[in-house]
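Recap quiz, item 2
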Amino acid sequence: MLDQIARTGREFDSALASASSAKEVDDLRVRYFGRKAGLIPALFARLKEVPKEQKKAAGDALNKLRDRLEEALRQKTERVAGEEATRKEARETLDVTLPGRKPRLGHLHPVTIVRQQMEDIFREMSYSIDPGPEVETDWYNFEALNFTPDHPARDTQDTFFVDVDQLLLRTHTSNAQIRSMERWKPPVKVFSAGRVYRRDEITMRKSPMFHQAEGFLVDKGIHIGHLRATLEHFIKRVFGEGLQMRMRPSYFPFTEPSAEVDMSCVFCKGAGCGTCSQTGWMEILGCGMIHPQVLRNVGIDPDEWSGFAFGLGLDRVAMIKFDIPNIRTLFENDLRVLQQF
Ligand code: PHE
């Protein structure tokens, strides 16, 4: 019995020495003092089997072992708790030398960048900024702009109709001309940019939803020279110095005369390259002098007032400026792309 008491003591000592966490120390306490299967209570239970003449010695040894083990566990528990507190403190201490965490900033979409830049340019020329509605009536999108109900030019702007009240999704931002001229008496200068919709297939250059910008001005004595000067200034500000601009006759129901505007290819500066099909020119916008009938439609006397208007695709400008070959890139919302702007 004495042997076994001594052995239990030695085993305990080495187990305690290798215990390093509060949990391990606690497990030891259970193993040695647990009420059900603890080794020390088990030894006490076996005292009654010990022959009478050895009982006192064994009892004394066992009492001593119990006291020693209890004290050892108490001390170890204290030490381990102290160590853990120190470790925790070290973990939680603020390290002021660590680099800070940067807030993640959002990015402007390339079309937004282009739109805001254009709005700034026209705001500087004291134009009002008015985006106009995307859901429109036939009157504002077509009829008031001189597209009579069976006008063939309606076919060039294949329209999405909304099932309610004969509404449609505007096919161009030219609706802004009518809305603004109705609202404000001339002189008016408005720049209007936003989404437009046409029933087109999705291709490299076309999408059923895209963005246009429209600018127009009505005042006394406005002629095509004002239009040309405005566009030259605009192109220079958006694409930089040194580009030529040319006007080609064209047709829109709401302008007369009408023109298509080209600028020298921004990639080859007019020398001819793959992007401009070796022509040296890029088509950039449509424009013209506001048709007298359009002015009459909004109650403006064309004998007293005249104006010009122009419209262009924002997506195309963003694609040219940022060298994006496929329009779909603009609408896929791929963060790897958007984060580059
Ligand atoms: N609305 C025309 C289009 O979508 C562009 C345009 C605007 C032309 C203003 C002339 C004047 O093609």
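DSSP finds twelve helices and nine strands in the chain.
Residues 2-92 form one domain.
End of item.
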